[in-house]
Amino acid sequence: MTLKIHGVLVIAMLLSLTEVIYAQDTISREEFEALKAMVVELKNENAQLRNSQIQESTPNNNSQISGSTSNNFVGTNSKYNFNILDHAERTNTKQLYQLEALSNGMLDSTLTLGGQVTALTNYQDANEDTKFGWLMRHPTPSNQVGTSASEAVVHSANINLTAKLHENLTGYIELLYNPEQNFAANSSITGLPRNNVNVRKAYLLWGNLDKSPMYASLGKMDIPFGWNDTVSPFTNSTNWHSFAGLAYGGLAGYAKDNLHLRVMAIQGGAQFRNANTPVKGTNVPSKLNNFAADANYTFTFGNDTSLNLGLSYQYGSSYCQGYEDTPAEAHSTGVRFIPNVTRNTAPQGVRHFKSCDENNSSVATYAAYKTSKLVLAAEYATTSDVWPGTFNPYIPQFAAQKNETFTLGGKYATNLGLSEPVSFSIEFSSFNAGAPGSDWEKQDQLVFGTSYYLTPSVNLFSEIIRADGWVPLNFLSGGNPGSLVGTSWSSQTSKNTIGVIGIQAAF
Question: What is the pTM of this model?
């Protein structure tokens, strides 16, 4: 309305000026300049009013949009999404990475959406029927048969959402589709039980590194135990497979001056990965009676060289079950085909997510040396007590053992004339669970890897893997249905060779 009024006034002034000119032969210089000044003044005032009305109709940086303090409501950052979803690096330090991303401006939107897809093709060769020891897909007869297997598959896909709810509060949700490593039993990678989508992680994160080194998170998250990263581009280390945990709980952390401290209260019972503390003799997660703690320090030498040393403890690991033995109900002696042979007709032995009589704690120590081109890593983890189920009462010569796992690896990046460096890696890791000479003594893994980042969020990789030994966690010391009593389906003569080519891309 104001703009219309001023427009009318300008037109009226122009008409008045015209009438004056036509009403008389001449007009004084003073009169003309006065009329001209009035028109210019009205023109300037009209422009100011127009600008003020445009500003009033456009939200500024301080206006609220659905509770947001930013006019950039939804966005994405492919590099951030790659790093937050990567299964090979920063495996249990995602919260600290998110706080660093918030501090350095990577997350400038209220909602940051993203995801990743890992697709690969592989060939696997085994010297024993249906025994494939590569742990990046479940090593069960439901997934591979014969002595060779080949695939062209989606190994995993994720969708994630990071929300800036307040300057000190961040929400995070991560969805996962992983048919190759889904825990669904008695199903193949094309079966519906393995082709589901689940909430892999979900938590609220309180913290702001620009204000305080303290932070905390509550929800479903990685357990702060061990390093569990790998120098390989794709295949996780045996330490990760043995001790990387995922559970409900609450975490508190401190990160300042190269020191990083974390402690997490963990829901008891059997958790999603590597956490089990009995609750009244059951595996029901109805009590907050487990915890883990990690402390690590990074020594810096110059601009691009560092050494990270760490130590971890967890009160209740997952290696606590005994050997289930109910012969009156689960054993049968044949009389038709193989007389006087006794078989397990129902599950016996170790069942990994079942209840425990008491907790079995674990400790880990690790070191990672990094330069701009080189990474050297070492990690060792062990349970404090023996794993009761590694003793089979029908093979009594093999005593129960602790679960011990270690990893040694190195990676080097070199320029081969491409736009980005090419990384070459080698990593050896070993899972030791049985007495020397037992079929379930150990499983070794050796990985040669090559990696090239087409962009910071697209990684092309290839690997050659050698797996010696086949020791699945369930029934590792014997007792799987259909087996002979006094035997184990684990094998120390099993050998696998695997070739992998793949791409990991985030958006």
Answer: 0.84
Q: Which tokens sit at 282?
A: 């059951």
**What is the Cα–Cα distance from 261 to 224, expressed in whole angstroms?**
9
Alpha-carbon gap, residue 148 to 127, rounded angstroms: 9
Residues 6 or more apart whose CB falls under 8 angstroms from that of 68 comprise 110, 164
Alpha-carbon gap, residue 296 to 279, rounded angstroms? 31
DSSP string, 455-506: ETTEEEEEEEEEEEEE--STTTTS--TTSBTT--S-EEEEEEEEEEEEEEEE
Name which of 347, 316, 315 is nearest 329 in CA terms.
Answer: 347
CATH tag, 74-506 = 2.40.160.10
Q: Which two tokens stand for residue 69?
A: 């303090």
Task: Check if the beta carbon of residue 217 is closer than 8 Å to that of residue 250.
Answer: yes
Contacts of residue 397, defined as CB under 8 A and 6 or more positions apart, other chains included, come to none
Q: What is the per-residue pLDDT across 183-204, written as a single tens digit (0 to 9) for each?
A: 887 788 888 888 999 999 999 9
**In this predicted model, what pLDDT tens digit does every residue of 99-123 receive, in sequence order?**
999 999 999 999 999 999 999 999 9
Contacts of 298 (CB under 8 A, 6+ apart): 258, 260, 306, 307, 308
Q: Where are the domains of the chain?
A: 2-57, 74-506
The predicted-structure confidence for 411-464, as pLDDT tens digits, reads as follows 999 999 999 999 999 999 999 999 999 999 999 999 999 999 999 999 999 999
- Dihedrals phi, psi of 347, to nearest 5 degrees: -55, 130
d(CA 273, CA 223): 9
458-485 in b/e burial notation, b at 16+ Cβ within 10 A? bbbbbbebbbbbbbbbbbbbbbbeebeb
User: H helices then E strands: how many in the chain?
Assistant: 6, 21
